[in-house]
Structure formats: structure tokens, C-alpha cells
Amino acid sequence: MCETGGGTGEAAASAPRPVRGAAVDPVALEPVDEVEIVTLVDNVYDALLGDDERIRRAGGGAGVVAAPQFEGGRTTAGMIAEHGFSALVTVRRAGRSTTLLFDTGRSPDAMVTNADRLGIDLGDVQGVVLSHGHFDHAGGLAGMVGLLGVRSMPMVLHPLVWTRRRLAVPGRDAEELPTLSRRALDGEGFQVIERREPSLLLDGSVLITGEVDRTTEFEHGMPPPHQAWTGGEWAHDPLVLDDQALVVHVRGRGLVVLTGCGHAGAINIVRHAQRLTGVGELHALLGGLHLGGPAFEPVIPPTVAALTDLAPGLVVPGHCTGWRAQHALAGALPDAWVQGSTGTAYRLSAA
């Protein structure tokens, strides 16, 4: 499944195996005092959403741009929304703050433009994590390089992000998706770190899951039109093995899980994070849950039921979750569900 890797044999060897029971020698994820997640790119921007003690919205006044049609020649621009995802993650522990970038959106300019309108300096970012190789999560790298120039910055990703993929919908011409270039990222100054296994970042404060164990009976992955190049042919790629999530343990609250698309399945991801860390409480789930469209709508009821059992304090589905799943989650978890919007900051503090 990876054009530059060991072909189908390597991909098969890397496939997650179902694992049951309690975690053995769990990852020592250090509890943090606070984590703040700012959605720099999401599918939705709503300037009328309100704040609360955990949530700060960008509002309608973010970003002033030139506009000769208005008196004074200026207007407020708001945030750019697109079919993509990017989040800025700031972890605070023992008086120290460290910031990572989790995904970069679809287009070269949306993420950097939104960061500028929010007054965020991307020069403070100390590392980049890619949830997987799909272009709507990596397109903003071009804008980031153009803004910051070439410099050494660690980038954590799965080795299968370089996989060539396409959509081969029956009755249409197959559409090959943009594929990340390892050569280009090396040349632009990123220090690429390929990991299949879990990774601990920021002095043990952030966990990147690596490949996720597929243990539920209902999360089957992508439908047959989603294909990958094996080195000799195009084949169905249901698992998107490079899919991984970011996890933080907020002291006294539980796990905060951030997904890009959630191709491994939202419940698989949460349970995997619980097993890796030995922490049973789910405090928050944010990001894309990939429940939109006819192929995934049958997965909505069991996902909602399982997530309800997990009883998170905050659920912010975004990006590819889909409106039917949004409504189902809002109905089942009215006290936890929050409408996502580009430019929103979520601050989750220790008990």
C-alpha cells in the first residue's frame, strides 16, 4: 500500500491486531495542568456562536482586511472554513507551555491566514504532527513554509503517509489524490520522524497513538472506492493504517483525544488511548469522526451508543463528521456536545 515502502507484505505486517483486556505496562503519559486546542481550520465557521468558561470563539471581528467598498476602506473578514482540519495544541505543565501543530488544513493559505487573524504566531510552534496522509490535512504545509522559511522542525507521522491513493467511484473517472513528498518536506527543513508505534512528545505530556487497534465490530473503515497503490495495482484501502490521534491526560479529569479524520473509528481510537495509557476516563473528544455520507451513516447509532457509555465531558465533532452524526450526538449528549467552528479555542484545565 505504500509506493516507497515494502509493498503489500510490509503493509500486511503492520496491520493492527485486536487486543483485549487491560493495558500491560501502559505508556507513562504525564498528567498536565491544562491543554488548549484552537481549531485553525475546520469545515464550519459560525461567527454567532457564544463563549463559555471553556470555550472562546473567534467571533465576527477576527481579521481586518482592505475593502474599498466600505467607508474607511476596511472590513472584518472572519475565519476561512474549508473541507480540511488543523488544530494548534498548547500544553501547560509545571509552569511551562509548549505548542504543537496537529494537521494543517487543505489549502496553502487557510491555516496561516486564520492564525494571523487570531493573532497567533506560528513561529512558536515546536513541532508538527500529521494525523494521516490525506491532502486535506497536509495542504497547509506549503503556506507554513512560505511564512516561516526553511528551518529545522520535527514532524511526527506514520510511514504510510506517503501512500498513493485515489477515489475510484463506479461510473466516474478515477481521481488520484495529491500525495505528500518526503523529498520536498526534507528540503523544506522538516525533521521527519516516521513512527508506527506510539510516541511520547513534550517531555511525556502528549501521546501520539501510532497505529490504532481495530477492536469494535462496527467500524469497518473506508468503502471500496478508496484505493491505494500497492506498487503493482490499485487495491481497496479500508484501514488507512497511517491514521493516528493525539492524546493528553488532564490531571483529575481524564483523557483529551484529538482526531484528524478518525479513520480508525472514533471508538477504536478512544479505547486504544485508554489501553495505552491505563486511564479509563474520557474527558473530551474533538476532531473529525468520519461519519458523513451513506457509507458511514449505519455506523452512527453504535458510535453514539458507545460514546454515550464513555460519558465524556466535552464532544466537539468537526470536519468529516457529517450533519446526521452531529444531530445524533447533540441529541444523545446534550451537556457534552458543542458545535465546532473554525477559530474556536477550547481550554481544558485540571480539576
From TrEMBL:
<feature type="region of interest" description="Disordered">
    <location>
        <begin position="1"/>
        <end position="20"/>
    </location>
</feature>
<keyword id="KW-0808">Transferase</keyword>
<dbReference type="InterPro" id="IPR036866">
    <property type="entry name" value="RibonucZ/Hydroxyglut_hydro"/>
</dbReference>
<dbReference type="InterPro" id="IPR001279">
    <property type="entry name" value="Metallo-B-lactamas"/>
</dbReference>
<protein>
    <submittedName>
        <fullName>7, 8-dihydropterin-6-yl-methyl-4-(Beta-D-ribofuranosyl)aminobenzene 5'-phosphate synthase</fullName>
        <ecNumber>2.5.1.105</ecNumber>
    </submittedName>
</protein>
<dbReference type="Pfam" id="PF00753">
    <property type="entry name" value="Lactamase_B"/>
</dbReference>
<dbReference type="InterPro" id="IPR052926">
    <property type="entry name" value="Metallo-beta-lactamase_dom"/>
</dbReference>
<feature type="domain" description="Metallo-beta-lactamase">
    <location>
        <begin position="92"/>
        <end position="191"/>
    </location>
</feature>
<dbReference type="InterPro" id="IPR041712">
    <property type="entry name" value="DHPS-like_MBL-fold"/>
</dbReference>
<dbReference type="GO" id="GO:0102041">
    <property type="term" value="F:7,8-dihydropterin-6-yl-methyl-4-(beta-D-ribofuranosyl)aminobenzene 5'-phosphate synthase"/>
</dbReference>
